[in-house]
Design goal:
2 copies of one chain form a homodimer.
Chain A lengths: L17 H10 L4 E5 L2 E4 H17 L7 E5 L4 H12 L3 E4 L6 H11 L3 E5 L3 H11 L7 E5 L17 E4 H7 L15 E6 L9 E5 H14 L7 E3 L7 H4 L1 H8 L2 E4 L5 H11 L3 E4 L2 H9 L11 E6 L5 H10 L1 E9 L4 E7 H4 L11 E2 L1 E2 L5 E5 L15 E6 L6 E2 L3 H7 L5 E9 L5 E6 L4 E3 L2 E3 L1 H8 L5 E11 L3 E10 L7 H11 L8 E4 L12 H10 L6
Keywords (chains A, B): Ligase, Phenylpropanoid metabolism
Protein name (chains A, B): 4-coumarate--CoA ligase
Family (chains A, B): Belongs to the ATP-dependent AMP-binding enzyme family.
Chain lengths: 547, 547
């Protein structure tokens, strides 16, 4: 540093999303921060609750660097934990509520969390997990959250194992004048999010205060979530910390709307009732909403922006939603990059016939993700921007994890060469935009050829009878693998496998045409993502299926 | 850092506003970036020009850490220098075009800049300064910028001293495939802005890439400058780097409108012509616009946001502008904090009779300025939030200078105790909002009492005949100092000193009433700020003025 220049406490404050809540409580004290059923908190009230909770956590011995786990759906308490846990200097790990007890036990062991916040619906699951863990030292402290908009569900009487405290009791223990434990370094961890674990042991992805702060700001650009948004919580807060949106909404002094149940009817009703401006999630929410649209459904009071990550449902569903006033955006990202990295209005994706089967042609990259590229994973050279050459999609930027918890070798592998390696395959167009060809794990290798399952799905979904489609590899003695299609038909529709295969033949090159079609419901995870690993198992079993 | 967590090239990219231009060129290649007269560049074109210029600077030997000076008004070249100089790894120092040759010489000596960009109107000034400098070693390189919207003005033939190169020639020297020299550390300097120097030697205030980046983002919140703004350049880019707005507009992919001349007529015409959404500057621009409003002036096509830093003109001028569609905001800040720190819509300032003389009651603090407080400068304790107790306004946050160039003792003094000390006096209200009482240097000490000149000016400006007013201390043998008012009357208006004093007596306590009133034009600096140091000198001379 040159003469006269310094970096000190006056001109360097570690970046942390905690600043956003402080500011919201100061600048917008009376504005509605959060609504859930009949409950409504202003920013001042919410700030007070978070301070109380942080104070109570400190009293319980939660200290800087400790991990606090949560098995909680999108209720206000989980929103509050996004601030109060880091306010106590601790690290929040919000866990998927759909985990089975043994996976949950495995994760809890990895976390070494001593405090677990549990929503009443999941108390039995957590107690089962704790029994599996059979931890002997200090007992776990479980904080039980009752949904105040529903009937109270008491924990089972048999739950003698851990110490159980009530969320409300904890809140009342706290002191409102608690002094926030700000991070000493902006690279200190703020949260841990687990990947789905469908490809092995769940990985704990660690976010820093800095990354969370910058990605929360990037969300403003990404979702065009400008002044005072009214945000509807359809994306799980336990997924990438709800794409960092709990922090974004606080930065903007917007309002959060939590739902009792995430179904099409509730979503639609909330939009009209609360003047919702934005919501996000898995593509399935679009289908749910479309199903709930009535015959004389009134137009939305204003354009409502919805961003979904994953393969879009059939065009007629999208059109139905757009006609009502929804602005549909499609995003691509991953836990490691704090959620969506690049996104695009769906209208921009579909603007030429040539690209009729383009599913995700993303491009408006995150303002905090400095570089997005498609590279040869060996040479690390960019692929030619020719719209043909396949490479691995890679990123580098500040909206990026610190690494995998207690897994240095996987962290090193992920960041090898100074770029985050997505393992996803893509191509690059002359204008610099990239197209996701497929997730590396989903790729089908057939007779020496590489087949993108996304491309086949893009054709299937255009068949007039098809509602949802997924393609996976089926082992084949001759070709190695062949495409196997799983298809869910629209209600009241019928189709045969020959018809579906014929349709594919009209649109795809021969080697890409599915060799088998299986009809039925597709297995979805809690965020509506199709669980391809289940389908792959099924396809293996069906190896002998007659063509 | 815990096991498995790393900070590396993949997840840590030094924050720099250069990223904004890269992204704008990628995401909005064809969108208009900048308009000046008949010239118009898209983001792609502007990006290309900046790359060329950075490349040419490198060829000239400009290297990381070097300082490049500019004596240039708000023409496209100065916008380009905000990107191209740091792209070459160098530090931009945009200097006030209103400086006299000897002050300019003093600053150039301090900077040790070897390249100076000069607008043709100021070439004689710069050559004079260089003669004063009489530098002997390497000659300066002067890059001459001609206003392409005007007639070319050649440099005087006598200018043999420095090497002179043409801006256009330099651009053509550059290579468009230049590899940007990104900062190694986000705390590396990006620019140096000089304070007015009215209180002594001009101070070079150094900004880091990080502070510039974060403050450019904060500008989005501060000016509610959301999606695709059309920004009119009325604030000087050589003042706090135009409040960091060159970088903000790039971050948003907005459009910049440069004016040939900053007068009311040009401003109004540009607003209608280009659909301007935002502009900023000194309060005098409001008066200039009000004067230019015609009798049948059409309403603005949409609300236009204007933010001014300093004392607002009389209410009828504000009302006239608001009726046309302007949304007027008032801000308070300083060079050290990269421009405005806190700002507020003027409507919020004036909402009670009690506070009729409140001039700046600011509060919506910068999202990047973590703490804003009024403290006792000795004990560093916050003053009671009672709306009465005076203390020093202090800040700490990321939108803050690195320090004063080559002046460690002043830097240390400014950041003493871990806060930036503004030297401005303020009070704090129970709701946490602060009110600026006065700049410390302007305070009048009269008979053991402290008088705020802002409060007296707040009364004077409400007199129906008064257009502008400034109050300074006049030496007094008995009381030490007494208030002395300088008043500019509205056109066609007449008033006597007795009338003005009588009016003040109706509104102010006795000891605050000006003891002398002087009529005439007030001396303004180039940004429209009243030059109180000139008035103080005049007041001293007038010590014997009869009361």
């Amino acid at each position: 540093m040159e003469e006269g220049l310094v970096v000190c406490r006056a001109n360097h404050v570690p970046l942390t999303p905690l600043s956003f809540l402080e500011r919201a409580a100061f600048v917008y004290p009376k504005r509605i921060a959060l609504i859930h059923g009949n409950i409504s908190y202003s920013w001042q009230e919410l700030h007070g609750r978070c301070l109380n909770l942080a104070s109570a956590l400190s009293q319980l011995g939660v200290s800087p660097g400790h991990i606090v786990a949560a098995v909680v759906p999108n209720v206000p308490a989980l929103y509050e934990l996004h601030f109060s846990v880091p306010m106590a200097g601790a690290v929040l790990s919000a866990l998927n509520t759909q985990l089975d007890a043994s996976t949950l036990a495995q994760i809890l062991q990895q976390l070494e969390a001593k405090v677990i916040f549990v929503y009443s619906d999941f108390i039995e699951l957590v107690l089962q997990a704790l029994i599996i863990l059979q931890e002997k030292d200090e007992p776990y402290l479980v904080v039980l959250i009752h949904d105040s908009t529903n009937n109270v569900k008491e924990p089972p009487a048999s739950s003698a194992t851990p110490k159980i405290l009530d969320y409300q009791t904890l809140l009342e223990m706290g002191q409102p004048n608690f002094k926030i434990v700000y991070p000493k370094n902006e690279f200190d961890p703020i949260s841990i999010n687990f990947t789905s674990g469908s490809t092995g042991k769940p990985k704990g992805v660690v976010y820093s205060h800095r990354a969370a702060y910058l990605n929360a700001i990037a969300d403003i650009f990404r979702y065009e979530m400008w002044k005072s948004p009214v945000f509807l919580w359809t994306v799980d807060m336990f997924r990438c910390n709800g794409w960092c949106l709990p922090w974004t909404v606080a930065a903007l002094g917007g309002s959060n709307i939590c739902l009792r149940e995430i179904n099409g009817k509730e979503i639609l009703e909330s939009i009209y009732l609360h003047n919702v401006t934005h919501f996000c999630g898995a593509p399935m929410i679009l289908t749910k909403i479309a199903d709930a649209i009535g015959t004389n459904q009134p137009l939305l009071p204003h354009e409502v922006s919805v961003t979904v990550a994953g393969v879009l449902p059939p065009p007629e569903i999208l059109t139905k939603l757009e006609e009502l006033g929804f602005n549909i955006n499609n995003a691509y990202g991953m836990s490691e990059a704090l959620g969506p990295v690049i996104s695009m209005p769906r209208k921009f994706q579909d603007n030429s016939d040539e690209e009729a089967n383009v599913k995700i042609r993303e491009g408006i990259h995150n303002i905090m993700m400095e570089e997005v590229d498609v590279k040869d994973p060996e040479s690390m050279k960019s692929v030619p921007a020719d719209g043909k050459t396949t490479g691995e999609i890679m990123f580098r930027g500040n909206a990026m994890m610190l690494g995998y918890l207690k897994d240095p070798s996987r962290t090193e592998e992920a960041f090898e060469g100074g770029w985050y390696r997505t393992k996803d395959l893509g191509i690059k167009y002359p204008d610099g935009y990239i197209k996701l060809k497929d997730r590396a794990i989903d790729i089908i290798k057939s007779g020496g050829k590489i087949i993108s399952t996304l491309e086949i799905e893009g054709v299937l979904i255009r068949h007039p009878m098809v509602l949802e489609a997924a393609v996976v590899a089926r082992p084949d003695d001759v070709l190695g693998e062949t495409p196997c299609a799983f298809v869910k038909l629209k209600q009241g529709c019928f189709a045969t496998d020959e018809e579906i295969i014929k349709f594919c033949e009209d649109w795809l090159q021969d080697y890409m045409v599915p060799q088998a079609v299986i009809f039925g419901d597709l297995p979805l995870n809690s965020s509506g993502k199709i669980q391809k690993f289940i389908l792959r198992d099924k396809a293996k079993e069906l190896k002998c299926l007659p063509l």
